[in-house]
Design brief:
Strand content: over 45%
Oligomer: single chain
Number of strands: 11
Structural class: mainly beta
Helix content: under 10%
Distance between the termini: 40 Å
Number of helices: 0
Length: about 120
């Protein structure tokens, strides 16, 4: 199994910044795409950003230009730098990874979620 531990969430005023962290551990052979999703109250979970093992990034919606996804392959960690935060960014943020364990197929794993609240 792959364990994902998230941290870095919290409360911030509009215009502020937060940095989310997600570290993967386990008998990991390789990690392919890593990403962040979010789910606001009463809404479906939505994709925020992804990053491939080669470093190619993709952003969805109005986070472009405000959020930056990055990863440290040596630490099996993915980050989400969030700037110019808006109240609409309030949600539980989940990291997910496509990972292959030794002797296993590629599977998708999810973190437990971290709350981000943007409010004045």
């Amino acid at each position: 199994q792959v364990q994902l531990v998230e941290s870095g969430g919290g409360s911030v005023q509009p215009g502020g910044s937060l940095r989310l962290y997600c570290a993967a551990s386990g008998s990991i052979f390789s990690i392919l795409t890593m990403g962040w999703h979010r789910q606001a109250p009463g809404k479906q979970r939505e994709l925020v950003a992804t990053i491939t093992s080669g470093g190619s990034t993709n952003y969805v919606g109005d986070v472009k230009g405000r959020f930056t996804i990055s990863r440290d392959n040596a630490k099996n960690t993915v980050y989400l730098q969030m700037n110019s935060l808006k109240p609409d960014d309030t949600a539980v943020y989940y990291c997910n990874v496509q990972a292959q364990l030794y002797g296993s197929d590629i599977k998708t794993y999810w973190g437990q979620g971290t709350q981000v609240t943007v409010s004045s």
